[in-house]
Amino acid sequence: MSLPRRSYDPRRVCLFPMPQLPAFIQTNKRSFGIYLSGALFALGWWFFLDACIISSLTLKPPRDPSLPFEPPATHISFADWVPGLCATIGMIVVNLIDKQHLTEAGGTFSFGGGSGGGFSGDSVQWRARLFLFVGFALLAGGLAGSITVLTVKYLVADLPQGFEYYGVANVVQNSGIMLSTVLLWISQNTESDFEYNLTL
């Protein structure tokens, strides 16, 4: 049994066609990707800072000393901050790398203009790839650390209902930072409509 030609195209990979992007996004893909990346980064930090504010407010005793005050079972500490800071540093490291150095085989790196020196003549490609690896390792370590903090501090421990939000906000933060980094990397590698490569 074969399908009619109008409903089947042998070049298609998926059975259902993906929807077309609107025209204003197709013409400004790079700018749209960069803005969306920034929004994901801000949203991730917003979730975590929201959890930090809630945690800080639960630590404060009431102004009226006659009211009963019971300190919370747990609160956000420095251990909760470390994964997000690692992921943010990883995002900075990944996006500071010049993408051309990753594919250049003959690039050289030297300090100063002299012919001698410790690093003159060395390939820059392996250094760029090393920094890229370190950046993505920091991102992955941040995400793994946030999942570990969620599991060990908030899920395994016998805590009252509601405290797991602190750990979930940490995982959402690191996931947003990682997605933001990947989206920014892809957006920066796409050429803008107004960029022209002129070679003589």
From TrEMBL:
Membrane disposition: Multi-pass membrane protein
Family classification: Belongs to the UPF0220 family.
InterPro entries: UPF0220
GO cellular component: membrane
UniProt cross-references to PANTHER family, sorted A to Z: SMALL MEMBRANE PROTEIN-RELATED (PTHR13180)
Any one Pfam family match given in the protein's UniProt record, by short name: UPF0220
Compartment(s) of residence: Membrane
Official protein name in the record: Related to membrane protein
Transmembrane segments: 34-58, 78-97, 130-156, 168-186
Organism: Pseudozyma flocculosa
Record keywords, A-Z: Membrane, Transmembrane, Transmembrane helix
